[in-house]
Design a protein that fits this description.
Layout lengths: L1 E3 H6 L1 H9 L4 E5 L2 E6 L4 H4 L23
Parallel strand pairs: 1-2
Antiparallel strand pairs: 2-3
């Protein structure tokens, strides 16, 4: 869907409802596309668990030494 920026400002709740349903909206300024509003993929909506890489690497002691 393509919308002029002025139309988007007037109907932002409707635009966000479309995006929430999975539709992408291209914002245009005088018929030139300038931005896109699209839904966030579902795998990015959930917080990632802490500690996924635990035990997979160790930080070397040199990391904690002062820089020159």
């Amino acid at each position: 869907m393509r919308l002029e920026i002025s139309e988007t400002v007037k109907s932002l709740p409707k635009v966000l409802a479309l995006v929430a349903k999975g539709e992408s909206v291209v914002l245009c300024d005088q018929a030139r596309p300038v931005a896109e509003i699209r839904p966030i993929p579902s795998h990015l909506r959930e917080p990632r668990p802490i500690g996924l890489a635990k035990g997979k690497f160790t930080v070397p002691q040199e990391f904690f030494e002062p820089l020159s």
